[in-house]
Each structure stands twice: as structure tokens, then as C-alpha cells.
Hints:
Layout: E1 14-16, E2 31-33, E3 40-41, H1 44-51, H2 60-72, H3 91-110, H4 125-129, E4 136-141, E5 184-188, E6 191-192, E7 197-203, E8 210-216, E9 225-231, E10 238-243, E11 251-258, E12 261-269
Parallel strand pairs: 6-12
Antiparallel strand pairs: 1-2, 2-3, 4-5, 4-12, 5-7, 7-10, 8-9, 8-11, 11-12
Amino acid sequence: xxxxxDRDRPCDYLGNxxxxxxxxxxxxxxxxxxxxxxxxxxxxxxxxxxxxxxxxRSCPTYVLAxxxxxxxxxxxxxxxxPSPRRPWLPLGLLLRIGLIAAIVLLxxxxxxTVLRPFTTDSARSAAIATPNxxxxxxxxFPPTRTPTPTPPANTPSAPAPPIAxxxxxxxxxxxxxxxxxxxxxxxxxxxxxxGSRVTLSGVNWEPxxxxxxxxxxxxxxxxxxxLVRTRTGTTGSFTGSVLLPTTISGRVYVSVRQGDRAAYVPxxxxx
Length: 271
């Protein structure tokens, strides 16, 4: 069947008493009005004037029902604006990580480490005994002590010679040789600008023991400032590099100390 034109289209609220969505094209007692949500009877005259024609738009019941429905229509919610995507890590943590990385890279670039690792057995006695002309050497201060043998308690002392025949004077004992038993250090170079890096090496120190590397104004214990600590190897030798401060001037002394023994080597600062 052809679709009725808008002029002849019946009211949407018109239906049968037993079926909301069916109707006839002529006034009929079984028609009901569903504008209020419940079926209500409609006079056949009103059906012919309004319900079955396009005039239903001017029906007061229709106008009220349409207004009520439009007022009850839900308003479509406005979709929320998309929030900016958060980074995987908090911004503050990212900034801290970046700052730490920058500091590490700067330290690596400037080579600002105070002491490079000491190797345990790289220095040898031959390297200290016959140093390079550019290497400044200095022996232990005070010298290595040689213990004096104590005679046994039960050994009788020799009788004194007669006064009339005095014994000739004894020749002084020769000093102990400064051989491999003498602890030594060497440094290269012996001169340079402020903040220079020098290489220290030593032999014949106590093995597997701690050493203190220092600097000061003289070859003595007064005014010495600690730079770094390291350890000797199994043979009592060591070698490594240390960064001198930028505040020194003139002649300073680099010292290696172990227990109550210390050795000093001079360094001349070039202005």
C-alpha cells in the first residue's frame, strides 16, 4: 500500500485497545489515545477531526504530550576533553635522572677523578733503582730500622783487657746497604702546572697493607693533607696516578705513609 502523505497521516498516539501500534483508517469505537501513557477512549467525532488527519498536531492532548516528551528527553552529555597523556615516569623524577646523567658525563669529560685505581704488582725494584731521568725519587724517611741483636742472657761478657795494654779502637760499622730491602717511592713527572696528574710507584713496602697518599709544604709530618688511600700488593709494591690540587704553588712534597714510616718526593709547580 502507498505510504500516506503527511496531510493524511494519523496521530502517533492513536492505537487499538488491544494493540498500541495498530489502528484503522476510519473512526472506530475500539481506538484509544495513548498520549498520557495509558489508553483512553476517544469520541469518533474527535477521531475524524483530529486523530485520523494531519490536524492532530493542533490537538491540545497531542501538544501537551509532545511538550512533555521533549522536556523529558535526556540531554546528551558533553564528552570530556581528552586529558594530556602522562609520561611513563613523573616529570620530577625524569628531571633528576637527567641532572645526574649530566653530572656523570661532565665528570668523565673533565677526568676529575682524584685517584685512578692502583695495581698491586706493576711496580718493580728495577724500575725504582734505575729511574727514568724524568722521574724524581726519594728514599724512606726515617730510614728503615735494622734491629740490633741482643746477646743471650747466659753468655758471659768478655774480660776487660789489661789497663797497661789498651785495645786498639774499632773501625765504625759500615751503613746498611740501600738495596732491595729499602722501601722507596718514585713519581713522574717531578714538575708541572697546578692540578697535574702524577704517577706514583713504590717497592719494598709492607705487603697487603694500607698506604696513605698525602701532600704538604715540606718533607716532614707537619702540614700534610691526605689525598687518598690505597693498598700494596702481595710483593709490597704499588703504582697508580693521583690528581694534585689546583691550590698548590711553589715546591710541595708528595708523601706515602705506612704506619710510622713515610717517604717524600718533591714536586715543583710551574706558574
